[in-house]
Amino acid sequence: MGENAAPARKSPLPIQPRRCASRSRGGVRDRVGPPIRVSTCIARDPRHAACTVTRRVASGTCGGVSMKLLNRKWWSRIGLGLLGALVVIQLVPYGREHTNPPVTGEPTWDAPETRALARRACFDCHSNETQWPAYAAIAPISWLVQHDVDEGRAVLNFSEWSRPQPEAKDASEEVREGEMPPAAYALIHAHARLSSSDRDRLSQGLARSVGMAAKQ
Ligand code: HEC
Known about the structure:
Blueprint: E1 18-19, E2 32-33, E3 39-45, E4 50-56, H1 72-89, H2 112-121, H3 123-126, H4 141-155, H5 171-176, H6 183-188, H7 196-210
Antiparallel strand pairs: 1-2, 3-4
Helix pairs in contact: 2-7
């Protein structure tokens, strides 16, 4: 039996850090770290009994494909990339123009309280009196906000009662069933959260103000 006779096919893999050869693309090559455990040892350093060459027998990158691949350098590159993207998307004009169109007419509210509740819970999306929060100027949030407001105003606009509002007849029911205001919006906007009595009063008030008799 020669020295190399039994290069310990099943010998445990070395766990001390070593230079680890890997795909040469993108900076992964020169990393130092333990080899992945799915490799098999095919050559050893005779002096240290350390494995010098390993062969991968399963998929995976040098050092594993887990978080090790994303070492600090990579995280910082990713972070910088995201930051750069965030800066660049601010140049997109969509969602930056926040001037409210004029109010051309409102429903005949049955009571000031109905209007007050609607103002709290609905007006940001269904009127021309949208309160634009500061973060609504920052993409990509601004895109979501703009989309909600555009769509909301298109289906029902309490500030443009001079034009037909065919969806208005559904408003009372939407409130009663808790469909409106949208849950995600109410989560962020405390002022729009309706207690169950608020909900009842708004729903009834809307039925009286814009209910089934709404303009078609
Ligand atoms: C965050 C923005 C937002 C708020 C706040 C909001 N809505 Fe809406 N609403 C929308 C959007 C967007 C649509 C259109 C898409 C949809 O139907 O979900 C809509 C649709 C509607 C519709 C038409 C639904 C249908 O399909 O017939 C009614 C009626 C309505 N909203 C009433 C209300 C009322 C009443 C309130 C206040 C209690 C309210 N909304 C608050 C965004 C909003």
